[in-house]
Amino acid sequence: MTIALVSILVAGIICQWLAWRFRLPAIVLLAACGLILGPISGWINPAVEFGTGLTAVTSLFVAIILFEGGLNLQFHELRETAQVTRRLTSIGVILAWGIGIAMAHWVGGLSWAVSALLGAILVVTGPTVIMPLLKHAKLNRRTASYLKWEGIINDPIGVLLAVLVYQYLLYSGEGPAIQSVIASLALALGVSAVLGGGVAYGLGYSFRQGWIPEYLKAPSVIAAVLAVYALSDLAQHESGLLATTLMGVVMGNMRLRSLDEMRRFKEYITIILVSFLFVVLTASLTMESIRAIHWPLIAMVLGFVFVVRPLAVFLATIRTDCSWQDRVLMGWIAPRGVVAAASAGAFAPALIDAGFSDAQYLVPAVFMLIFTTIIAHGFSLGPLTKLLKLGSASKGRILIVGASPWTIELASALKKINQDVVIADTEWGRLQSARQQGIDTWFGEVLSDLAEEAMALDNIYTVLAATGNNHYNSMVCNHFAPHLGRHRVFQPYDSGIERHNRVVSETRRGITAFSANISYAELWTRMIRGWAIRKTSITDTYTEADFLAKLPDDAVRLAIIPESGKLEWLSQKARKLQSGDIVISFVPPEPSDESVEKPISLPA
Which regions span the lipid bilayer (predicted)? Predict the structure, then answer.
């Protein structure tokens, strides 16, 4: 078991890295890895390696994943997409279920009973597959919110619907099944509200009162999620997913001071869990289940992709403010993931034992749809986003925090070479000059919740925190580092007497920007003395050696813009210049004009 566990974890993380490195959908690689390790090579057989405990572990992992998804749901985003989201998670669910039942029965040849269960399972479009796709697609904020909210809200709704159908099928021969289903639904909702919402509020209150130390907050939350899941399931079977999702939503909107750190911790855990689950579930497929696939089943899967989902979305969003482009995209994008696979694997054996022989097709049908949607939607989302013009407004923005004559001049120079720059500051007057030059500005505190709502931070790819307060610069860099990466947050050099004893340590600040140790105050002083921002293009005939030979000794190299067009702030560990690079430098005035304070310009 040890070898199998280590192999799955290592393979999962390698797939995640490959997906990041080559900009591929991670779920595609994870699913392929599971097939290779499982039915193709026979290296791992999870049912044998992990035994009966695999189902329980899978359910607990899914609960944590749904809690983390709920934690990311912000009510301000729901306000932007409220009408469409309500339709997709209510009318849309009913329509998808009804049309799916017809598709499974008339095209797939399944019985009405198994068709009803399969249709309920496939209502789910979960966060485990939607979130990774959204990270790569660069959708605009509104469209991404539609898909994110639908995926996370529909996860517990779809599971609960599947559980109710499952219970109905099992109870149908034992008396009043309808009454049992209604009672189960009421009990599930009540238990989820009391346990999920109550425990979330209690934990949040404990955090605010200081009853739980910082180092125990994240572990306490994980323990509470598992406890809520187990207790909910004990009170009402399969209500745990709904309860943990509700717990995440409540905690995510309590504005807790420690929430950012906990959210990052949960994201790290979730990456490991998703990697593990997808590899395990695909490795659990057997050659027998693969051989059970036949042409009516394949036609049914294609029907779910090309008919059921588009039709359900189109009908559900009639007379809403949803544009036709959004409707087309949402009608196509509906990848299924861990929750659908886990549900099919949990329900199929019991139904087969209860006499529903065609329940043997549940697992191969669900996994076939998972592979189809992951591959088709994973590789088509980016091109479709561009085709429908639903992407972000630009290829990415540069955020400069702190408006000063020097940063405004820098932003102006970058704007002249087609860089999308925004300057943020808390003082309206300091932004006046930038606005007059046509530079995008944001008036407010970048560390506030309002900034996250208004600035669409997903579209910012690098930050330069250049205010006169180095401690504040460090706070800004630490705030953006988890979103952008530590290698993309920069701040000027910290100057002063006894520097290493009086400033923020290197591990708690951004990367020191620029090729020379030059402070914010010195940058401003040199600009007053006539220094200017200059751009230089590196070509095959004008190489890096030529550039350095003509560069004044005390000049400061600020940034490089490669052929890709995305700016890279320079540090003292600058890379070698290549043909096609544009170098942005801060240079002194010509020697003959040193006594004249010239206006800042951008030489050709």
Answer: 26-44, 50-67, 88-106, 112-134, 146-169, 181-203, 268-287, 293-316, 328-349, 361-381
467 within 8 A of 401, measured Cβ to Cβ: yes
pLDDT above 80 (res 158): no
Residues 6+ apart with CB under 8 A from 370: 31, 335, 336, 337, 340, 341
SS3 571: coil
Residue tagged 């932003």 (tokens): 411
pLDDT at position 596: 42
- What phi-psi label fits residue 355: left (phi over 0), alpha (psi between -120 and 50 degrees) or beta? left
Q: Kindly provide the b/e burial profile for residues 500-530, where b requires at least 16 CB atoms within 10 angstroms of the residue's own CB.
A: eeebbeeeebbbbbbbeebebebbeebbeeb
Q: Is the pLDDT of residue 72 over 70?
A: no
Return the amino acid letter for 254: M
Residue whose C-alpha is closest to residue 117's, from 129, 100, 133: 100
Q: Inform me whether the pLDDT recorded for 534 exceeds 50.
A: yes
Q: Compute the average pLDDT of residues 152-157.
A: 73
**Contact of 424 with 457, CB cutoff 8 Å:** no
- Encode pLDDT of 410-420 as tens digits: 999 999 998 98
At 464, which helix (H) or strand (E)? strand 460-465
Nearest CA-CA partner of 146 in 281, 404, 403, 321: 321
pLDDT tens for each residue of 496-524: 544 555 566 777 788 989 988 888 889 98
Q: For Cα atoms 137, 394, 563, give the angle at the middle one, nearest 5 degrees.
A: 95
SS3 for 253?
coil
Q: Do the Cβ atoms of 408 and 340 come closer than 8 Å? A: no
pLDDT of 216 higher than 80: yes
What is the Cα–Cα distance from 18 to 189, expressed in whole angstroms?
41
Write the DSSP symbol of residue 447: T
- Tell me the two tokens of residue 77: 């985003």
Evaluate whether 191 touches 235 at the Cβ level (below 8 Å): yes
Question: Exposed, middle or buried: residue 51 (CB in 10 Å: 0-12, 13-18, 19+)?
Answer: exposed
